[in-house]
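Before a colleague's protein record goes any further, I have to sign it off. I want your independent view on whether this chain really folds as the tokens say. The record follows directly below this note.
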Amino acid sequence: MLVNISEITESITSKKVEYEIVGDELSEPSALKAQDLTLSYYRAGETICFRFTGTVTVDSVCDRCLDELELELDIDEDYYIFPENTPDVDYFYSGEFIDVDEYVREIVVMNMPGKVLCDEECKGLCSKCGANLNYGDCGCDAGDKF
């Protein structure tokens, strides 16, 4: 999704974000399932202010037992985007448009938890036979289960 820089004014404008993560843009085995994001933006002098709010649903797997799960991430992120020649800034613009997709991709990755778990009490997999211990004892003599 592109935002035309010449159309950004001092008044706040809001738009629904239309974005689809394709391929390996999220670390495997996660994939963007749904989104309900709104982008609000305005200009303050030469600085452009973006605010993303809403929710994103990501299909993923538990890091302990590998069961599939859905994560719903609450999004509330601000970006301040400066002209290209501004020193020591993380985000800058040049040209006629700003590509919103780059920010959405970053927001999803930044809001993913460091460890994805189906449940805080997840027992994981047996280190010997690989059985999911959440469904019951596997019966083997591994002894050193995760």
Summary: The chain has a mean pLDDT of 85. The chain has one domain: 2-121.
